[in-house]
Amino acid sequence: MAISTQVVIIGGGPAGLLLSQILQLNNIDSIVLERQSRAHVLSRIRAGMLEWGSVEVLRAAQVSERMDREGAVHEGSGIAWAGRSRLLINTQKYAGRSMMMYGQTQLTEDLYAARDDLGGEIINQVDDVRLHDLKGERPYVTYIKDEQEQRIDCDYIAGCDGFHGVSRTAIPESVLTTFEKKYPFAWLAVMSETPPLPVPTYCHHERGFALVSKRTPMLSRYYIQVPIETDIDDWSDDRFWAELTARLPKDYAETIVTGPTIEKSLAPLSSFVAEPMSYGRLFLAGDAAHILPPTGAKGLNLAISDVHYLSNGLIDHYQNNNDQQLDNYSTTALKRVWNAARFSWWLTGLLHKFPDQTRFDQRAQEVELDYVTQSIHAMRSMCEQYAGMPLE
Ligand code: APR
């Protein structure tokens, strides 16, 4: 027997959960279909740096209580470059916007709790989700739950099912254009229950890139650039800390507190953008439409800005019978996505050591960094983009 709702949301990550929350606050019904169990979704450790525009969207969506209590507001991030003076990307000073450090895992917990409080419908552990009649007036979604096929009729479908989801593949190949760039290295990440260094800092070093970051006063996140073919089992904690400290500036290496890691993972770096982000009554949001290297900290922020534009469009449709924002959704969202994609590509290129890097490339990186350090215009441009372009 078919049930019906206004919007079916495929994927219960941050994008899908936030969309369902904003829609419900505006009296629009939705059902979220998530392939994994809730416990699995909440065990994933991902991003942690929120732009101020994202903070404001989360506040308006009434999921900010814990973030405002526990998140760390800071004025920007550092860049350390062996043999050069430390640079602070001071987004507060040069772009008028702070950043908020708050883990995606915690945010996802808050979103699930908020959905539970409002009685939102999330169906976990669904299989074989399929999208139908996307070009018709009344699309529908089928899926398997507990070995039974189910069907939900709806007005719209939101594809928030991440990079490996099914939604994007429902758009015919003849319509979809994809842009991709793969980097010849990965990031090896660890989490440790140790006090973090005070300022999140990107470190360029001839041994390779490193990043020091944090989640809470007793939870640190560290990354090092490694070859793409790295086997994570080759990296004991001792080896990780030795390599990390070798790449850090001296004062950081001397003050860092190391300890047993509680998580270790490997992430290849790539950029991917799919255009358009809509097809008939399907709208893609978040990683379903784009992934970026983590260097610019844009992935989670773009998921939030996509949801901001999409929810505005759906609210305007249901409350004012106006489809203009929905019709423009893909164009509006992609403008911001491409800005972030270009910035992440630039920052990745500036800070990493490439396997085929020549002396010329190395010198060009150094000169670029000197330019940002010395030119107020270059510094403002960098800070504006790191802080995130304002939401339209
Ligand atoms: N059916 C139902 N759910 C699915 C399917 C499917 N076929 N495929 C994937 N999913 C679910 C995944 O299990 C996941 O929980 O969709 C969800 C997508 O969530 P995310 O991958 O977290 O993507 P998104 O919500 O767009 O959030 C973007 O995640 O990877 C980071 O850097 C990224 O921080 C950014 C954030």
Structural commentary:
The protein is an alpha/beta fold and 392 residues long. The protein has a domain of 234 residues: FAD/NAD(P)-binding domain (3-Layer(bba) Sandwich), CATH 3.50.50.60. Helix content is 37%, strand content 29%. The strands form four sheets. It has an eight-stranded mixed β-sheet. Strands 9-3-2-13-20-19 form a six-stranded mixed β-sheet, covered by helices on one side. α1 links the parallel β2 and β3. α1 runs parallel beside α6, α1 runs parallel beside α9 and α3 crosses α9. The longest helix is centred in the C-terminal third of the chain and has 23 residues. Adenosine-5-diphosphoribose binds next to α1 and α9.
Strand order of the largest sheet: 7-6-15-16-17-14-18-21
The largest β sheet comes out as: 8 strands, mixed
Low-confidence stretches: none
The tally of beta strands, per DSSP, is 21
CATH class of the domain at 3-72 and 100-179 and 270-353: Alpha Beta
Secondary-structure-derived class: alpha/beta
The helical percent reads: 25-40%
- Supply the CATH superfamily name of the domain at 3-72 and 100-179 and 270-353: FAD/NAD(P)-binding domain
| CATH architectural grouping of the domain at 3-72 and 100-179 and 270-353 | 3-Layer(bba) Sandwich
Q: Which whole number gives the mean pLDDT?
A: 95
Q: Over the alpha carbons, how many angstroms does the gyration radius reach? A: 21 Å
Shape: globular
The fold-level CATH name of the domain at 3-72 and 100-179 and 270-353 is: FAD/NAD(P)-binding domain
Oligomer: single chain
How much strand content do the residues show?
25-35%
List cofactors, ions and other ligands.
adenosine-5-diphosphoribose
What is the count of DSSP helices, taking H or I runs of 4+ residues? 13
Cα distance spanning the termini? 41 Å
